[in-house]
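SEQUENCE WITH STRUCTURE:
===
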Amino acid sequence: MAKAAADKIAAPSAVERRPALAGQELSVTGVTLAVLQPAQRISLRAPEASVAVLSKALGVSLPQKPKTSAAKAGRTALWLGPDEWLVIDDAAKDPLADCAAVTALHSAVGISHRNVAISVIGPAAAATINSGCPQDLSLDAFPVGAASRTILGKAEIVLLRTAADAFRVECWRSFSDYVFTFLSEAAGDAAA
C-alpha cells in the first residue's frame, strides 16, 4: 500500500531560477536603464606575486592601479583594492574554473548569483548616477574604463564606465530593486 501511495505522488517539477529584475528597462529623455544578462563573476584576492600567473590564466591583465579596469574577449577585471578584483565574464565562460588550476596563492570566490548589473546609458547617465553617488563622474576624473566601489543612495555598488556616456552598475541582488528604483527616479529627474 505504501508503494502505491508513493507512486501517486507526482515527481517534483523542475525549478527555474529567474534573474532578479529580469527584463526591467526604462527609457526617458537622455538616459536608458536596462538590467544586463546574467554574467559569471568572481571576487579575487591575491598578493602581487600571484598577479602575473592569474592574469595569464584569466586571459586578461589584472589592473594594478586604483580606479582602473582591463577587458579582453568578454571578460573584464576591475581593480577594487591593492589585492582585490572583481572579474566579470559576459561570454558565459567561468573565471572560477580558470583560477582553479592556478597554484599561486590566491582566493577566488564565485559570486555570479550574488550580483545584478544595470546599464545606465545616455547623455544624462552621469547626472543620473550622481544623484545618489558622491563620486566625480566627469570624464577627466572618471574616464572610460574607470572602475570603483562606491555608494548609490544607501547601497554599495561597483561602478564601471564603459563609454563616455555609459556605465555598468553592479550591485548585490538583495539591493537590486532599490538600486533600479533609485536610478529610475533619478533618470526622471535628469530628464526634466
Q: What stands out?
A: The CA atoms of residues 105 and 141 lie 33 Å apart. DSSP finds five helices and eleven strands in the chain. The chain has a mean pLDDT of 92.
